[in-house]
Amino acid sequence: MRKAESRLRNRFFIPAYWLLALFLACVVTLSLSFWQTGTAEAFTASPWRSLGQITWRTVVYALLGTLLERLLNRPAPTKALSPFVLGGGLLLCWLPYLYWIFPGTVSNDSVTQVLEIIGVEKLGNANPIFQTALIYFFRGIGKVLGSADAGVFLYCMVQALLMAWLLGAVLSAQRSSGAPCWLTVASFLFYALCPIFPLFAFCVGKDTNFSMAVLWLSLLIARRLLPRPDGEKPCRWETPCLCAAAALCTLLRNPGFYLALLTLLILLAFSLFGNSRAQGQWKAPVWAMGCTLAVYGALHLLLIPTLGIQPMPATENWSLPLQQAARVAATHPLTDEESAAIDGVLELDKLAESYNGELSDPVKNLWRKDATQEQTDEFFRTWRSLLRKYPLTCLSATFHNTYGYLCPGFLSKIKPTLLIGRQKTMTPALEAAFPYSVNPRADDLKALMNKLSDFAPFRVWIAPGLYAWACLFTLARLLRSRRKRLLIAAVPSLFSLTGCLLSAVNGYFRYAMPLYLCAPLLLWLCACCFDSSEHAKERK
What we know:
Blueprint lengths: L1 H11 L2 H23 L3 H5 L1 H26 L10 H12 L3 H4 L3 E2 L1 H10 L11 H17 L2 H29 L4 H13 L2 H6 L1 E2 L1 H20 L12 H15 L3 H18 L9 H25 L11 H13 L4 H8 L4 H7 L6 H4 L8 H17 L1 H10 L27 H6 L8 H11 L3 H7 L2 H15 L7 H15 L11 H16 L3 H8 L1
Parallel strand pairs: 1-2
Helix pairs in contact: 2-4, 2-25, 5-9, 5-10, 8-9, 9-10, 9-12, 9-27, 10-27, 12-13, 12-26, 12-27, 13-14, 13-15, 14-15, 14-26, 16-18, 16-20, 16-21, 20-21, 25-26, 25-27, 26-27
């Protein structure tokens, strides 16, 4: 009897899941208050009610985490299907979306890059210059073919084909590694039916291909860390592919360099001090780090200065301090010294009316371009002082700007989430240089998505919060497993989630794209972390 009670306790009272569940329950309960009022008022007005909501949510979330672990612990090794077969099936499921959005969607950032290409705007690296070069290339193909739409369509089809193959490779690896059959089936249906994937596959934008690079890097690392079938030798393409994936992360997003470098450093440390040292596994991360550093150096030390390309504005990385300072200025009286320090870099008289809790762009737009380094340093000293003086206000500002990434079902109303139809007004200069068309049926698709978004299950399915939960569940599961090394393959996703929490827009789909693509891979890592001894215990 005692043994049965002990087994039941071990199965349903896993401390890691209860701690994670308590954290998520607090986040969701507080998020609903900010969603309704923009403050914690609804949370603090009725503390006993909030405590009750946190309690039942904690129990439900913990039991769901335990149930998911039980479902993942169902090994079912089978022969792998070809990534091309699986990818082809995914592409067929996505093609109907072209009926509504043909030749494809052109994002705001891509329109800006076209204006940079034709000289209307100054060429800059705020949108990565490599992505600008890709748009230049496909725009050139469109000019040769006599149609801007042809260039848009070819870009989208190449991108969709690559994405379909990559997702097919994830599914193929899942199927051959002993992961549960239900996980592979669910992953295929998720990739095939969730509108996120076709809409971003058929979109000219920087977020889709960067997310693909992140997934490719994660997949390559996962395959290196998982046991190989008996007799299987390492593929000679593993090291070149790892180098290419890390280089693409660096080229396709400015913070991608830090993502790739951090991941490779951890992989190298494991290769040097882990049990793979004798097999020479350290060579591949060294080569990949060398390529990453070479690409970054060539880009920022040679290409950008030589061509006179404007670097990314520093304020792009300052959403957190700027939002905190703006919220303090809007809600608390400031001393003369504090006002002078903030007004030296921001237009203080416009700060309160410009502040938006879910979008830092209006505050960033108030940054004075003529601010000196001394004024900038004084602002950050003042910000740190305000952080100590009004910690709850600063925490509230940060939470208001980020909770959508941790609250399933949250849909941002600040900016379009699903990129459908025209994203930017056509100007005469753009019409002359890149006269792409927007399918009028896109309005029908947008109306359909808006109607479906009225249903909570659909919102939960398409919003980024659920996939952040998958990331955090993977972290909790792998930390308590014997195969903690698999966490290295989850580092790119964890880095991406951290980037979302520091980003300018609350709950923005395209910022969370790496989490969408990597979610099935993360659950696959959780399934692979069970070793033979754990399976033996489960069978008893």
